Input
Amino acid sequence: MRRSLMHRPASGLRQGWWCEFSAYSMADGREAGARLRAHAVDTPQRALVWMRLAVRPLLSAFDPEDAERAYRWFDHGQWEAVMRLRAGEPYAFVASSGDTRVEWSARPVLFLPLAPADGGRGCPCPRP
Output
């Protein structure tokens, strides 16, 4: 059985999850979008915590059907999302408010270690 790279990262690579918040508007009959926020986390659970914290403040602006779906997602949808992320699948929650569609997504990624900008001498800044 062949394992994917996500289950066994090569040396130096670190598994994580990349989270994004995007909004899309149907202005003038065509869709225009922008990524508004991005965040890196180290577990599927933290990806879901990030998504929950980002969705909650906008609930009152959602269309009624999407608000109801969001409340159900808060109550019952978290385990499915975590299981999908653990399995290496992306996950997204999408809602609408009038002409605007908002999307919170998380997907598994491999983070590469960064090389020091000073050519390998290390950062002269104190570390926390």
Notes: Residues 15-110 form one domain. The longest helix spans residues 64-86. The chain has one domain: 15-110.
